[in-house]
Specification:
By secondary structure, the protein is an alpha/beta fold. It folds into two domains: about 160 residues, Rossmann fold, CATH 3.40.50.1220; about 90 residues, 2-Layer Sandwich (SIR2/SIRT2 'Small Domain'). It has eleven helices and nine strands. The chain is elongated, with a radius of gyration of 19 Å. Bound molecules: ligand BJW and zinc ion. The site of ligand BJW has 33 residues, from helix 2.
Length: about 260
């Protein structure tokens, strides 16, 4: 570990020690060490193999429902087989050290909640929910999983809605769609009121979530980034830790002195 890296961790710890309200903004890099590919990493990202507009839009779904539905079923199977990594667990361990710790995540894999984090705002929805693309009625995930078992590795047609006969779609936010209102309102409010925003494993390229660090910064919060690579937000950060999510968060938890309430 270099002296510069040590200083960056020390700087981050000093900011966290003084903070009462922490917001953690997470992206696909957070779950990379759980074996879930990121979206944009050149060699391993999901979109190294697929074009986003070919799969993550409503029009792609309308053009070829089985192809898009099957892609999401494969991903649901993958996240169900995955486990939270030490980075997710470190965020759970950090909770008791702050008056409030809110996780605003773009991830649809539920790994923060499965790790045990209490306050998680899912800004891009979840792979665990399905609903009818026509009437909005919830479609049971058990029914969807039964379709997975029937389909095996083959293309699976979307489950048909019992109310209107429409096709079921994953409960994630596609390009051109608005984000869920309530978590979005809470995330913006938390960003305006936090002392520190910790930004972990996101390329900070997808809007409107990419605005959140700017909202926090303009309201006077300090920004800390954990990401092996530079991002558009790096220049505004007080500390940029160039490590993986699991390494960075584990080390921060280790260095943070115990809370006086502990
Ligand atoms: C590690 C690591 C390790 C690796 N540890 N780190 C303003 C300007 C320009 C464009 C727009 C704008 N406003 C809106 C737009 C359009 C669009 C957009 O942002 N486009 C940009 C790409 C330019 N936005 C939208 O369409 C949004 N909707 C909207 O704005 O609606 C408006 C509206 C108004 C009125 C009526 C209706 C609508 C919706 C965006 C939804 C995004 N959805 C997706 C797909 C979800 C479904 C699915 O899962 O398939 O969400 S896109 C995809 O990107 C996914 C992610 O959540 C999101 C963010 O990606 P993320 O998490 O940052 O991952 P990566 O891969 O990009 O980065 C990984 C990072 O981790 C890297 O930095 C690595 O270095 C790092 N890393 N290993 C730590 N181990
Ligand atoms: Zn319906």
């Amino acid at each position: 570990m270099s002296a510069l890296t040590d200083r960056l961790y020390e700087g981050a710890v000093r900011l966290l020690e003084q903070a009462k309200r922490l917001v953690v903004l997470t992206g696909a890099g957070m779950s990379q060490e759980s074996g879930i590919p990121t979206f944009r990493d050149a060699q391993t990202g999901m979109w190294a193999r697929f074009r986003p507009e070919a799969l993550a839009t409503e029009s792609a779904f309308r053009d070829d429902p089985s192809r898009v539905f099957s892609w999401y079923l494969q991903r649901l199977k993958m996240v169900r087989a995955a486990h939270p990594n030490p980075g997710h667990e470190s965020l759970v361990a950090m909770e008791s050290r702050f008056e409030s710790l809110i996780i605003a995540t773009q991830n649809v894999d539920s790994l923060h909640s499965r790790a045990g984090s209490a306050n998680v705002l899912e800004l891009h929805g979840s792979l665990e929910r399905f609903y009818c693309a026509d009437c909005g009625e919830t479609v049971s995930t058990d029914e969807v999983l039964a379709a997975v078992r029937r389909g095996g590795e083959k293309l699976v047609s979307p489950v048909v809605c019992r109310s209107c006969g429409g096709l079921s779609r994953p409960g994630v936010v596609w390009f051109g769609e608005s984000l869920p209102e309530e978590p979005m309102r809470e995330a913006w409010e938390a960003a305006r009121n936090c002392d520190v925003m910790l930004i972990v494993g996101t390329s900070a390229q997808v809007y409107p979530v990419a605005e959140l660090p700017h909202v926090a910064w303009e309201a006077g919060a300090s920004l800390i980034e954990i990401n092996p690579d530079e991002t558009p937000v790096s220049g505004s950060c007080a500390c940029t830790i160039r490590d993986s999510a699991a390494t960075g968060l584990q080390r921060l938890v280790m260095l943070l002195p115990p809370h006086e309430m502990d």
